């Protein structure tokens, strides 16, 4: 071992080559190597290594599972299969990290390895954590200076975005009264070193109240549903420039009305690097309707419709993998306390469904909150 250390300390193996080799290791091996030898530990903590590891992690996306059990937060992940076979098995492994019990789990989203948890209501709290490193940040409270908008009546929503060019995570907070008063927009940059909210402006007034579920960050643009006048729209927030825009729905798109009997029937997702919307047509869909944004400037959408196999008509829509499979999971596990032991991968080209079993979290006998995220990228960096 001593001789090996001397060889590695010499000029025989360039540090750049070592960084490239070590970046191929799985995350668990990196954790062990950090503790084995100080020389390796220093390399594995270098910014250029963490950036290279993130780049290579993006080529091997995973599926992230989050649980809230008896007030405690648990994270598991498994490889995300490219061509899953029917009745194959995924093994989910746990990230052995712990977080305070006050971390909410009602609303959460993940971007580039970080997870944002948000709780609305009187006791608003926002927490960002990294399941891989175990680090977390409780975001400061957003101060409302508008005296005409009492804090108790303010409706706020936070969203997490990431821009790969500037390599910055930003949190956007939208505060609205739910009426025609101008909303308040504030941004917090994680890499700034100071957790401070900054006021920003938007040329048009929108309310972050909509039947459109979820938000998604694609290529440095954060998309979420909102109300603009009497219509529902998709708001676009450029993470780097901090500029806003909006996209109208296609005239044939149904379900954008908040008074619809199917509240939340439209869901945003990443469609192979484009913005996609899944339109639910009924509580138990026989048809899968997808809308894909083809031209944001001209508000142009394309529509795709597929007949759903009976096996997944009652299942919950999760999203799309990078290879184009639509993923479903058993419906509403937190409410009915169902056990999540499988995922369904629907191949749009072959029109086939593969039932993939999941092993790893059988220990949980009871849990109320469960979420599944596709395309999770392990990130060794936090802020």
Describe the structure.
This protein has 383 residues and is mainly beta. It has one domain (58-376): TolB, C-terminal domain (Neuraminidase). Helix content is 13%, strand content 40%. It has six helices and 26 strands. The strands form six sheets. The chain has a five-stranded mixed sheet with strand order 3-25-24-23-22, with no helix packed on it. Strands 13-18-19-20-21 form a five-stranded mixed sheet, with no helix packed on it. Strand 19 and strand 20 (287-295) form a beta hairpin. Helix 3 packs across helix 4. The radius of gyration is 22 Å and the shape is globular. The two termini are 35 Å apart. Residues 62-377 form the F-box associated beta-propeller type domain. InterPro entries: F-box-assoc_dom_typ3, F-box-assoc_interact_dom, F-box-like_dom_sf. It comes from Microthlaspi erraticum. This is F-box associated beta-propeller type 3 domain-containing protein.
